[in-house]
Amino acid sequence: MRLGVCYYPEHWPQHMWPRDAKRMAELGLSRVRIGEFAWSRIEPEPGRFDWDWLDQAIDKLHEAGLGIILGTPTATPPKWLVDRMPDMIALDAQGRPRGFGSRRHYCFSHDGYREEAARITRAVADRYGRHKGVVGWQTDNEYGCHDTVQSFSTAARDAFRSWLAERYGSIDALNEAWGNVFWSMEARSFEEIELPNLTVTEANPAHWLAFRRFSSDQVVRFNRVQVDILRALSPGRDIMHNAMGFYTGYDHHDLAADLDVLGWDSYPLGFLEMFRFSDEEKLAFARSGHPDIAAFHHDLYRGCAAGRGAEGRWSVLEQQPGPVNWARHNPAPLPGMVRLWTLEALAHGAELVSYFRWRQFPKAQEQMHAGLLRPDDASAPAFAEVEQVATELDAWAEPGPGVKHAAIVFSYPAEWMTQIQPQGEGCSALWAAFRSYEALRRQGLNVDILAPDAPLDGYRLIVVPCLPIVPDDLADRLASSASQVIIGPRSGSRDADFAIPEGLPPGPLADLVGGRVVLSETLRPGLFHNGAGWNVTRWLERLEGDAEAELVCDDGTIACWRNGRVRYCAAWPEGQLIQTIVGRAAADAGLPVDLLPEGRRRRTCERLTFEFEYLAGGVSVSATA
Amino acid sequence: MRLGVCYYPEHWPQHMWPRDAKRMAELGLSRVRIGEFAWSRIEPEPGRFDWDWLDQAIDKLHEAGLGIILGTPTATPPKWLVDRMPDMIALDAQGRPRGFGSRRHYCFSHDGYREEAARITRAVADRYGRHKGVVGWQTDNEYGCHDTVQSFSTAARDAFRSWLAERYGSIDALNEAWGNVFWSMEARSFEEIELPNLTVTEANPAHWLAFRRFSSDQVVRFNRVQVDILRALSPGRDIMHNAMGFYTGYDHHDLAADLDVLGWDSYPLGFLEMFRFSDEEKLAFARSGHPDIAAFHHDLYRGCAAGRGAEGRWSVLEQQPGPVNWARHNPAPLPGMVRLWTLEALAHGAELVSYFRWRQFPKAQEQMHAGLLRPDDASAPAFAEVEQVATELDAWAEPGPGVKHAAIVFSYPAEWMTQIQPQGEGCSALWAAFRSYEALRRQGLNVDILAPDAPLDGYRLIVVPCLPIVPDDLADRLASSASQVIIGPRSGSRDADFAIPEGLPPGPLADLVGGRVVLSETLRPGLFHNGAGWNVTRWLERLEGDAEAELVCDDGTIACWRNGRVRYCAAWPEGQLIQTIVGRAAADAGLPVDLLPEGRRRRTCERLTFEFEYLAGGVSVSATA
Amino acid sequence: MRLGVCYYPEHWPQHMWPRDAKRMAELGLSRVRIGEFAWSRIEPEPGRFDWDWLDQAIDKLHEAGLGIILGTPTATPPKWLVDRMPDMIALDAQGRPRGFGSRRHYCFSHDGYREEAARITRAVADRYGRHKGVVGWQTDNEYGCHDTVQSFSTAARDAFRSWLAERYGSIDALNEAWGNVFWSMEARSFEEIELPNLTVTEANPAHWLAFRRFSSDQVVRFNRVQVDILRALSPGRDIMHNAMGFYTGYDHHDLAADLDVLGWDSYPLGFLEMFRFSDEEKLAFARSGHPDIAAFHHDLYRGCAAGRGAEGRWSVLEQQPGPVNWARHNPAPLPGMVRLWTLEALAHGAELVSYFRWRQFPKAQEQMHAGLLRPDDASAPAFAEVEQVATELDAWAEPGPGVKHAAIVFSYPAEWMTQIQPQGEGCSALWAAFRSYEALRRQGLNVDILAPDAPLDGYRLIVVPCLPIVPDDLADRLASSASQVIIGPRSGSRDADFAIPEGLPPGPLADLVGGRVVLSETLRPGLFHNGAGWNVTRWLERLEGDAEAELVCDDGTIACWRNGRVRYCAAWPEGQLIQTIVGRAAADAGLPVDLLPEGRRRRTCERLTFEFEYLAGGVSVSATA
Ligand SMILES: [Zn+2]
Ligand SMILES: [Zn+2]
Ligand SMILES: [Zn+2]
Predict the structure, then answer these.
(1) pLDDT, tens digit, 9 for 90 and up, residues B155-167
(2) Among residues A552, A548, A549, which one has the least CA distance to residue A532?
(3) Residue B402: how many other CB atoms lie within 10 Å
(4) Gap from A203 CA to chain B (nearest CA, Å)
(5) C3 vs C30: CA distance, rounded Å
(6) B441 annotated to a ligand binding site
(7) Whole-number Å distance between alpha carbons of C573 and C579
(8) Do A98 and C199 touch (CB under 8 A)?
(9) In order of start, what are the domains of chain B with their CATH numbers?
(10) pLDDT tens for residues B429-439?
(11) What stretches pass through the bilayer (chains A, B, C) (predicted)?
């Protein structure tokens, strides 16, 4: 695994660049990511390019031995460009323009902007595509950051109508698939379909799901334009994009299919603070991050990247080096965490960990975001940890792939469906996947996170936490595996257009599960059914069928059903319930279960085994037994 | 009392209709409500009507012996209609259009849409008005659902100005009545009056009250157009509308005056979850509904319907049969609740309970809303309960009218006033009425809920929980009754245009109360005055006058005053305070008081007495002693 | 000190005016504030003035011996004026117009409205400027009330561009100062700078700070137009404006520089309820107000007014006399509070306390706001308290100036910066100042609140709670004083354009502090470091330098550093931590420290010493020892 850093030469005087490059190399870094926000410096006026500074920067970095990952600057089109086509701006769900003044101020469906993005990509790739120092490309930056995938502009509406026409062929097919007869929502042509925002009450969930799919496809299409240009003009370089944490605005399986390497930006403390964790968790892990945040995304994005056929290639393109500026509260990491997070990435198979950023910039929006260096050029606390881990990597560079234990099946449309129709607060497919992942990791197991169409070979335990739409052959593939299987609520509960299947949920999984879901209900916090050390919370389904009750509450409510190798979790998969089910299934699978303490996690690779002590910031590495 | 069901033949293949009709009849249902969302199927293109399917549906239902309640489909105008006059769309208070894509996408003040609504009503009534199977009509559906009574469109603004001109005659009269001299808000003509939204800080409360009255009047006017057409074209059929729970967007007394039967849609679990109940109540009654929710609305709407002179005719046009889809959490009812809720309606004098809906529809917005049948056509849990209660109704069909015990006086403008000017959080006239109702019901008493101008004869206890505007003769009518009277805070505190009366509150009730309110204050949660088993919370008034202090706090604060038969509750009527006052007044009235356990309620009819055990889902019925 | 009252003759029939005037005088009042909302009565039609009524009102008040403070009515332009130039309306940050129907419906940047405001000011001043009864003027009313300083209109945008051009000279200078290279935000001309609202994610903090400065300047400019007219047409009269509580929308130092007397409107109970106090404080002080609310503002505004050179002249132009109408909950003050608040103003050097209002108006927005008289003309509870304190003032009229103990340094841009970039919830410079003030007052000390450029002579203790931008000479002035100094977090952490200084925080204060801040982090509630009776909460900085650790947590975290006479509080200044630091510094300063009970406060003037018992509504006055 390599180490790298994100660097913005345009922020600093030119005389600092050579020294910066030298210090990077001395620190043990071999990669540097640059350029992704520099459009206004590359093309200060329409059509007038200023390459000098970037030539210099690239040369200096290259001369120091660093491989350069160059970003296309399309996340930050300059003001003159926006002024030339003001309707390139996205509209939010309330109909308000999302204008210039920060970043990501564009609508993915705007043809004119897509052409401009292609133009600047071509210009940059023309100039540097075959530069020896350039080893990779990053397209744009964090697609979807600041909730920018969905746009409610005229451009989006028109593109949505074309997308629908292509998907459904006829308006009658759409009306039928969506059930538009309900509430007289039937359209007579695709031109009668509006965007699903600003309706009186919620729009048809099928309408929303189509819009989510469309919006995701627009991102993939936008990205592909750049990928095609870069492949043509910069042969042999890896093309990447940097995904985010707990973010599902587009389908990362689809995006990754066009990339060589899927990157992601890892901010464990910020994510802990801003996402669904309980207040207790936010306090307990305030300085370390919840111990599964980084690992979950490593495994998720490795799975997304695996869509191209091989073992997925992935990297950490940004890594938190200290306090950030964007969470509600922004504490400093415990000493040791920057090293620990780096080794967690190593243990999961990253190709690169790139710290964000080299030196804290004293101005503008991210002035409170730490770097490896302080604004005064002195070392920030992370610097020494990187120095240490860079040395350690010499010994641990090849831990080998993770030993196959358990797999989780997750899809992006699953999360879209539970967002569109939660039916009860907190019922999110992504969160079900995270809590299932946590339960498996607490048992000391390795976990792969797979797309629904990924091969299932070699796993002794497969968990499908919440997968409303299942591929036709998933049931067969699960049946023909020898694995223990856990299927969670809502799985198989919808067809591709958000309709309940004819034979009731779990639809195509019914034979496997040995039952059908005849009633679903949701429970407010505090309303639960008591079990033996676990509870039924949040969601509860009643089943009819041949499966046997395995976990039964004091009041007779059945929390978990069993049909041979297959368990069905009829309540929300969280807390002690999913821990209990996972524990039983793992034991039945003959997996090496070992309930770890709260802050400890393990990763078993072929050659090395890592033990992470999150609450102490410590890591121990040993040869795998 | 009859049983019925809501049915959407347009959702199902035609071959299912005869069998559905037969099963309904066999189940013991004799009414079926249809058609209210079917405009796009009745008139798929402008001016082209497709009656075939509806002819068939009506005939099949009629042939099975069911009486049909036909809905006018005006809550869901089709897309082609909206596209022909886009300004029929309402604007919300933020100025955003509330467009097509769900339902209720129209502004009540739009002349063009009112004409279109008349046209489709005439078309449907022309075709089926004299059909033998059609026994009743429902106009539109749930006026005001999704907060749709108020619109801030140009059509609404223009209509509001005309309405004001009619009400006030001259702009000087309006300026004077509203006190527009305050903050230089004086207008020189009605054209200078804007809608009260989007002001810098709150608009004049008199302005808001006028707008609330206007908005209510627009609903009544819109409905009357349909009523007039239906009366002319479908003689002898009952005309109804379905009101909602805890909803006060328009004056139901006014609407009911134009109807034969006032219907309402009863969703006890959804209402519990979504309204002002405490978290403790939401947990305790999660599966049964708070035991006064359904009964309160039965008594409220019977009172609204009584405005036409006779004992009010009312029905439950929708009844929750299982989990719904629209609350924050959607649990399943306890076994027995569907039967219990049905019998509660019987005990209160409903003509009909119609379950919503026959079969769960697997698509679109309400796919998670239970029916009597599951989407796969099998029985849902409610089915057997309906079967049982249908049989029981043979024996209990005629419980007789409720014995007269206590009355609550409530008006819709009272609630508008407390919404416009709460002065302290949670001070709602509707909620004061509900908590007073609960206190009376806990004593085992029957309660009627009356309009301020309704006759007061026969009640031994009359409660006026919070009635800012009182009719001129109410004081006299209360004085000349022999009843015990409880008057609550803010009563008589405003004239018809939201001004404090010259002689201070309680205005025309001052002699009755024996005092005047010289100070009002509101108290944050936790700030209270201790009494003997009760507390002063939320609201407190100081009185001057001849009345005697009856309930005095430890610190000397007077919570309740007494002037002969009349008590004045000077604090917010809730909790143990209103329970204590009601208990004393009921005892003084010689009523059969009997404090019931938390989940038990009683309804004493002339022939039968019902005891409801909400927390157990049970009902016992006995001959009235 | 004089007493006065706010009076609205236009609300009452003319025959009441003489009697009202007489009662005011008899009560002991000598000032009456009128006219500030009466534009629609002064100029009922464009260009047609109706002076008769106001002539009468002024004459009657003057005849009763009252000195009149006349308000310019520019906070409430009439509807006809708005209709003539609809674009005078401000737009809110969401782009919505903030229209007619309440008050303050104008954009400070609209040239046309500023001319109209000048025109009406000239008209009123022409007529009454030399009237013997008129002793003072109030410009407009509560600039910024209802969040009205910032407008996002076209007028504001254009004016902002001009303001920027003047401030920065060249667009390159602006780009450099703001760091616009970050995210390609560079502009090519001032016409490319937009307002900072409706951006995709947060705009550049430098952009926001400039907009806050600009918006403040627009208020000052608007006010100055009126001041210039009044000075010319009404020589010798005091010109005032009434500021508000906990309000920082514009720079009061700048505004006060143009005024003779800075007034403010004191509503201790409303402010307690609506601002950052904890729920515990809101309960404990619900009926008295937190004991530092009024005093803090007295001292703050006296400091603002001192900018003109002399000891600052200031007044309470509105004083709460009972429950108000605008807080979330509106309790009545304890008996004695109206007198206590009056004496607190006396003790702090007010020239005038003017109660708001004479008689409760039974109509419109403030009908629930108490007055000295009830709507029925009888005395409200405050009346007798005013009567008492008016008599007492005969004896205590001349308490003398406050003895100099401690000073707090506060600036409005400091608060703007912490609002723009809190970095952690609750980190507000204003609140840091308030909590520091509270800590000093709890020690029985007098506190002056100073602008950063105010003279520091005579204080034995100077606290700089949170001052990101420091004047160049502040460090020198602090160093050359003999005072104990406490400097709080973020002080010196930014240059004038929101950039971190080259040498790191505390920038120019580094030598004084004896260290530099190398890391800042924020802590969620519950995440703290334990000290000995105090905790580190909310914010924490790490220092490097020569200073010595003075307060060290159990875990080694340093909460407070000391460098000779200078202490640096490296955590958020609140609770027991700031109390401890203040206690030590005050002791070192030889100040008479004396930790007072929770509800007691003291003010030591040259001749009289006041002890206030907030929780009992009592005051004792004695000769200063
Ligand atoms: Zn981001
Ligand atoms: Zn509804
Ligand atoms: Zn105000």
Answers:
(1) 999 999 999 999 9
(2) A552
(3) 20
(4) 5
(5) 6
(6) no
(7) 9
(8) yes
(9) 1-259 (3.20.20.80), 406-600 (3.40.50.880)
(10) 999 999 999 99
(11) none
